[in-house]
Write a structure and sequence with these properties.
Shape: elongated
Largest sheet: 11 strands, mixed
Helix content: 25-40%
Structural class: alpha+beta
Distance between the termini: 73 Å
Amino acid sequence: MNSCLYPFRLLSIAEETLTEFLSKATGTAVEWVQMPGMKPGPDSVGIVAISHSCTGVAARACGLVGLEPTRVAEILKDRPSWFRDCRAVDVLNVLPTANGGTIELLYMQHYALTTLAPARDFWLLRYTSVLEDGSLVVCERSLKNTQNGPSMPPVQHFVRAEMLPSGYLIRPCEGGGSVIHIVDHMDLEPWSVPEVLRPLYESSTVLAQKTTMAALRQLRQIAQEVSQSNVTGWGRRPAALRALSQRLSRGFNEAVNGFTDEGWTVMGNDGMDDVTILVNSSPEKLMGLNLSFANGFPAVSNAVLCAKASMLLQNVPPAILLRFLREHRSEWADNNIDVYSAAAIKVGPCSLAGSRVGGFGSQVILPLAHTIEHEEFLEVIKLEGVGHSPEDAIMPRDMFLLQLCSGMDENAIGTCAELIFAPIDASFADDAPLLPSGFRIIPLDSGKEASSPNRTLDLASALEIGPAGNRASSDYSANSSCCMRSVMTIAFEFAFESHMQDHVASMARQYVRSIISSVQRVALALSPSHLSSQAGLRTPLGTPEAQTLARWICQSYRCYLGVELLKSSSEGSESVLKTLWHHTDAIMCCSLKALPVFTFANQAGLDMLETTLVALQDITLEKIFDDHGRKTLCSEFPQIMQQGFACLQGGICLSSMGRPVSYERAVAWKVLNEEETAHCICFMFINWSFV
């Protein structure tokens, strides 16, 4: 291909592109409607609109940024720096024009968002020029064979998409800064993806969220950094933290896509095709991870393995599911796998000082940075007592993950939710080796999403009675009729020694399958349709089932022990449940099965077991007792069933995290239902504390 043969034709295409772009940016060539869910006011990212009906998908935005036009154009032309789905932009030729502008021929690649669809690429002309009023314009469009211009042959593993006239109109402001108009207009060839995914490729809302608004946010972020201090409380410059975020995102995208030109090869499956295993032993991959040396010591890993899968989720908002995965890591992650992953790229534990923003079980979240609108967070996750130091293989040590979290706003329509993390080197250097893994949840019915801003993962909030409590219940009911669909993509990477490939592949495959199972269980529990169904004791607090159980617990305690369990004088079911929930002693129920499992616990009980209502039902009764406790329970169990109760001496039990818990004494009693038959066994651990 030699573009010099087409200079006049290229200039003609460029001028046509400019005219069509301006008619969209400031005119009515496309019918625009306001972007759903946009918040008005001075803190808004800008004025955003989407196309009502046109070829492909289109979005338009207008905003004010505190940067000069040439700097704005420079940032926006570097698309991979702000658009996370952009893999590369190669400038293949540059032609100057008589009016002082430039025509560039570009080849651009976009990552696939899931394992279920191929990646996209574009063959583009980009025209940069200055208008008579001093405005700077950067406009682009796809080159097609019908235009008699230069061509680009198809590239393996990519679907050629089309960019219709799009670009940026940048007008200087008298007092400094720029007013920018952005138009994105694409035909993403939805025919090439499974039908269930087509809404993702046919949604102008998704295009606006992921591309148009991302450009405005990047400009505002850089403008803020220019006007404020350049060093954060962690001693890192904002640009360095943004680079870490980009490395996490890019590494995850590379894992999801597994391009052969990056060195990835697919391994055979084990008879099931639910999890795909890829291996990469290319020197470029290992050099990019900086695995040749860690803390001055040679690393033993010489290859990287990725296990990835995608799954369809029904009726659970991505933001809520992602927040649960972020705050309750212990309910889906395996500490042994975390330790293995960290050991492959680092020698010692990481020592970081910072403010503690929140603790969830054995994990602590330490903030690093966030974007202006808080739509993206970069943080360090401290996993307490899960790793071991090289000097002491017995004493547990803390390990750390660098984590990127985005899409937790339940009200942002069409937003992709991501949780991407990687073990970090002890030095936490800017070029520290990163091997990202994580989750991506993409709504497929963005226009139908209607999750309530009042919803929370703390199911205890349903205890609130009166108008607020009734209002929360109606939120669940309203959402239960709304069928929300989303696709979750999971990718986990592991560094390993080549002779361990089969073993690591088997481990990774089973690990991802266990995560899928955990996610499905959590998604079911968080689904509004299931929260309001008759799920027995799995329903959230505040439902009639939970209120009935609380009444049975108190009545049975009074029947067998002759005293009141609760000091409250109110007899209302809601009041009984609320008082039981806030009781200072740990109260928990277990099923009457051959292998009893816990089915209910109050807040103190959940704290003692270091778990949540969702994960509680995976804990067996025998798991929380040591050998002495199990023997005592076995000897007392016949008395509980015959006499109706038993008083147990003080001792030691274990939380779900394996932490020892001491208690002064315990009481166990049989809980009877309305028919006077045994429903479950209830335990109350009095004056408990962690040892």
